[in-house]
Amino acid sequence: MASRPGILTDWPWKPLGSFKYLLLAPWVVHSSYSVLVKDKSERDISTFLIFPFLLWRMLHNQIWITLSRYRTAKGNARIVDKGIEFDQVDRERDWDDQILFNGLLYYLASYTLSGASRIPLWRTDGVVMAILLHAGPVEFLYYWLHRALHHHFLYSRYHSHHHSSIVTEPITSVIHPFAEHILYFLLFAIPKLTLVFTKTASVGAMLGYVTYIDFMNNMGHCNFEVVPKWLFDIFPPLKYLMYTSSFHSLHHTQFRTNYSLFMPLYDYIYGTTDKASDKLHESALKQEEEIPNVVHLTHLTTPESIYHLRLGFAYLASKPYTSKWYLCLMWPVTTWSMILTWVYGRTFIVEGNRFDKLKLQTWAIPKYSLQYFMQSQKVAINTMIEEAILDADRKGIKVLSLGLRNQGEDLNIYGGLYVSRHPKLKVRVVDGSSLVVAVVLNSIPKGTTQVLLRGKLTKIAYALAYTLCQQGVQVAALYEDDYVRLKKSFNSSETNLAFTKSSTQTTWLVGDGLTEEEQLKAPKGTLFIPYTQFPPRKYRKDCFYHCTPAMLAPCSVENIHSCEDWLPRRIMSAWRIAGIVHSLEGWTEHECGHTMHNIDNVWHSTLQHGFQPLPVPINE
């Protein structure tokens, strides 16, 4: 929002929310009817193509978003070495409004203007005319319009909304108040209307011109340099005809230079070119891929989870993961992404963060949660994890933490398999078990005298049971088999371990395998505290469910603008935090296999570095 919002700031369909797309329905239905039902002589292919073209524009923009976020996470050719936060994602969530706005006006023009409908697929004279009109009037008028928008009166009421994003993403290019978009549409309509009125319009000219605008807009707002230097060395005058990502980035950091649209010519003519333009272009291209200190290795969860990644849909990624019905409509894209991950078959970078002097990255293995339960996939999964660890070791990364199902007793002995295979590893492998135990222990309400432990017995479950018994808290097992296994794991006789069938405990520590039937046995008001990476399904409305082991990240952790799976904003899983703390403390040993750090030491170190425990959802 601008600092002093003026009239026509909000889009007129803002109250409609996601239902705004219904505004296109009558036009789409009518244009489809004219092609599918009417006689060949009455068909209007050009109007019918408007809707597919709008879909192409959305896909085109999304490709740039994904590419930009991937490249900025890697760090090579990065321009501004800063991150973005959730407020920018929220501000830029409605980037599709301008596509909807343009689509409505395209349909209106097609049905009302002579020469705007039933146009041919191609006319060379119209294409040449569009190029000349853009290079001349459009670029010239935009330059002066842009300078006018930087006058304090218009800037404070309109254009400051766009400049709220210092570090730009491709979709930043279209984040303007509604009034600005009206002006931009009129400006870019000059070539299109000229073609219509001179009867030289064609589908190729119209679609090609708008695609060119989208391409240059997206490229110019990427926070990594796209245009190679050799291009200007081969043809020096090109620097006046085509801007670069770094050229426009200076406009967002300096505000009073580099006003041009896509052609810097007018900045050179009127003396508003930033003197650092060439230098920044060269330095950005020399920026090498960033080597992090800590890597968190995760994986995909469901086929739809690809959209919730930071590389997917920006707004979905900024919210805790929940299943969305409309994603089912995207099954062709989902299927294509599954095939791509299967063919690509390599770990990819998802996110990059900064914490004090530490450089952090999140890598993902292209495997889904379901595959971790398939015996036939275990070798392939272990190979990918091992390759990621060895890659981290070659790059000089200090710590690699294993997230989600990338560590388990059946899969890889909680990561110990890789250490035993490669005893000379310099990268420290961390399964985060000690911090997870500490987080769960400190989530148990004070004064609790007994808990029920239910779920798959893992390294963490055994540690929880032993520590609680040592603290004088009775730990009950719901099944005799679990009780026997827990008892055998203790070195001495433990009187605080019990086997019960009554389920009277109001604090349950739960892991994988908790069923609906078991939850129904819990007393009203029971607090379920997970000790596993995946949250239990909630069957009880009269009980309380804590989130999976996690903590609130300090404010000094930068570039957090996506949620970690189902966790709320700026909440990190304990497994991910464990790797960060391991590096900050300079611990030199691995934490994997059946070994664990001292739980109290890990907890106090984590608190000292600014991570905060989450409130427990329970009535006092």
Automatic annotation (TrEMBL):
GO terms classed as biological process: lipid biosynthetic process
Membrane topology classification: Multi-pass membrane protein
Record InterPro entries: CER1-like_C (IPR021940), Fatty_acid_hydroxylase (IPR006694), Sterol_Desaturase_Related (IPR050307)
Fatty acid hydroxylase domain mapped to chain residues: 134-272
Any one GO cellular component localisation term in the record: membrane
Main location class: membrane
Record's keyword terms, sorted: Membrane, Transmembrane, Transmembrane helix
Domain Very-long-chain aldehyde decarbonylase CER1-like C-terminal: 451-613
Highest taxon of source: Eukaryota
Single GO molecular function: iron ion binding
Location(s) in or outside the cell: Membrane
Similarity comment: Belongs to the sterol desaturase family.
PANTHER family: STEROL DESATURASE (PTHR11863)
Name of protein: Protein ECERIFERUM 1 isoform A
Annotated organism of origin: Glycine soja (Wild soybean)
